[in-house]
Amino acid sequence: MFSKACEYGIKAIVFIAVKSRQDERVSLNDIAWAIDSPVSFTSKILQKLVKSNLLDSVKGSTGGFELKKSKAEKIKLSHVVSAIDGDSIYKGCGLGFHDCNEKKPCSLHYKFKLVRDDLRTMLESTSLLDLSNDINNGITFLKQN
Amino acid sequence: MFSKACEYGIKAIVFIAVKSRQDERVSLNDIAWAIDSPVSFTSKILQKLVKSNLLDSVKGSTGGFELKKSKAEKIKLSHVVSAIDGDSIYKGCGLGFHDCNEKKPCSLHYKFKLVRDDLRTMLESTSLLDLSNDINNGITFLKQN
DNA sequence: ATAATATCGGACAAAAATGTCCGATATTCA
DNA sequence: TGAATATCGGACATTTTTGTCCGATATTAT
After folding, report:
1. CA distance B22 to A80
2. Does residue B7 contact residue A95 with C-beta atoms inside 8 Å?
3. Whole-angstrom distance, CA of residue B2 vs CA of residue A29
4. What is the pLDDT averaged over residues B7-19?
5. Is A92 helix (H, G, I), strand (E, B) or coil?
6. Above 90 in pLDDT, residue A93?
7. Which among A116, A138, B13, B14 counts the fewest CB atoms within 10 Å?
8. pTM, to two decimals
C-alpha cells in the first residue's frame, strides 16, 4: 500500500505532533527510536517533509524537529502521503493507466473507484491532531513493543 | 497500490478469460500486445499464475494460455493479487506492523481498517467472469489506445 | 573563541522490482 | 523424421527503493 518511506514518514510526523503539543522539540535519534526506524533513512524522509513545509527543523545543539501547533489540525494524512509517495495511490487508476476515467474506464475502474475514493476521503479528513489525540489517550501506538 | 507485475497480471488473466470464453487459446505475444506490456516480463508473471493453478498453459506449436471455463467465475481478483503481490495489501496493517490488531492497534488502525476491508471485499467478490463480461459488453478496456 | 551537538546534503552501498536474453523442452504439422 | 513454434527456466541487466556514511553547516553553552 504505502512505501516503507511513507510508513516511516507517517509514524515520524505523528510522533513529532504528539511531542510538539507539549512543546517538546525532538531529535532525529529520538524519533527513530520511538518509531523503530533506521536513523539515516529517517533523516532523508524528514528532510523531504521539511522541504514540503509540513515540518520545521532547527539546527544546532538544542535543535530537532517540531510541528507548529497551528499546523497539527491543518495537515492531513493526504499531505504526508503525497509529499513522500505522491498522490497516485488515492487518486490514480488501479491498473496504472494514466488516462482512465468514466469516458474510457479500465477494467477495474468502477469497482476500484469506490474503494479508492474511500481511501482518499479517509486520508484527506484525518489530521495529525486526530492521530496524536489517539496516541495521547493511549488508544493507539506507533511501536509494536 | 498494486505492483507493476500485478497490474500486468490482472490485465493478462482478464484478457485470457475474455478469449477463453469463446474457446480461443492465446499466445504470450498476443497477450502482451493486447495489454501493452513487456513480453518477457509478462512471461514470468504468467508462469507464476500457471504455477498458482489460476491458468493453464500449453506448450508447442498451437500452444498458449487458456482459462478453463469453470474457473472464470471461481477465480476472484484476490486470488490473482495474492499470487503475485501477496495478501498484505488487503489484509495487512497500513503502517506495516506485523502484529497490529484491535488489542494493540497502530495509529492508523481503525480508520485504515474500514478502507482496507472495503478493498478486500471488492477483491474477493470480483471474479474474472465479471471483468470479462464488462469487456465483452464494451463497457471497459484493457488498453488505453 | 571553542567544543559539543544537532540537521543538511551528497556520495555511496545493498536489496528488491522491473525487464531482457537465450537455450532447453514440448507439441504440431508437413 | 524434421522443421516450425510455443512455453519454460535460468542467468543476466537495469532501475528504483531502501539504507549507510561522512563532511559541511548552524546553533548552543562553556
Report:
1. 48
2. yes
3. 33
4. 98
5. coil
6. yes
7. A138
8. 0.96
CA dihedral (B47, B48, B52, B58) in degrees, to 10, reads: -10
- pLDDT of res. B21: 96
Chain B hits for A1, Cβ within 8 Å: 1, 88-89, 92, 94, 116
Question: Do residue B144 and residue A14 have CB atoms under 8 angstroms apart?
Answer: no
CB atoms within 10 A of CB B92: 16
Three cell numbers, residue A130: 486526530
pLDDT beyond 80 at B54: yes
Q: How far is CA B55 from CA A67, B58, B81, in A?
A: 52, 10, 14
CA neighbor of A133 nearest in space, from A74, A78, A72, A75: A72
pLDDT at B53: 98
Q: Which nucleotides of D are covered by protein (CB under 7 A)?
A: 3-10, 17-22, 25-29
Residue ranges in chain A assigned as alpha helix (H)? 4-20, 28-35, 39-51, 69-72, 77-85, 88-91, 109-125, 128-136
Cα–Cα distance for residue pair B120/B114, rounded to 1 Å: 10
Q: How far is the CA of B44 from the C1' of D14 (A)?
A: 17
Take residue A145 and report the three cell numbers written for it: 513493543
Euclidean distance between CA atoms A63 and B126, whole angstroms: 52
Site of grid cell 459488453: B137
Q: Are B139 and B18 in contact (CB under 8 A)?
A: no
Q: Do A14 and B107 touch (CB under 8 A)?
A: yes
How many residues are there in chain B? 145
